[in-house]
Write a structure and sequence with these properties.
Blueprint lengths: L7 H15 L7 E7 L2 E7 L5 E3 L5 E3 L18 E3 L6 E3 L4
Antiparallel strand pairs: 1-2, 2-5, 3-4, 3-6
């Protein structure tokens, strides 16, 4: 049986490798979240970071910036755990 590494950074790595194998300098940005009950793990590659919106409207970024996907011989995406406090909202956007 084939087992896939469930870490968001490993998923970004797999996408990056597929883009490099495709050729023609195919690039993209992505953010990957793993949600398990109350546990959230964030990994971003060249993509705006998710935002945590506090109950009073204050904002903070979730995670750390990572490299754009599809650049040959690049890696280094992070798995950053995130815990939301009562009343906080996680906002993930894409354009």
């Amino acid at each position: 049986m084939c087992r896939i590494d469930p870490r968001p950074s490993a998923i970004l790595q797999a996408v990056a490798e597929a883009l490099v194998a495709y050729g023609d300098l195919s690039l993209c940005s992505a953010v990957c979240l793993r949600l398990r009950e109350e546990e959230i793990v964030v990994s971003a590659g060249g993509h705006p970071l998710p935002l945590v919106v506090g109950p009073g409207g204050e904002l903070r970024e979730a995670g750390r910036p990572g490299l754009l996907l599809g650049i040959p011989e690049c890696s280094g995406w992070h798995d950053d755990p995130l815990t939301l406090a009562h009343g906080e909202t996680l906002l993930v956007q894409s354009t």
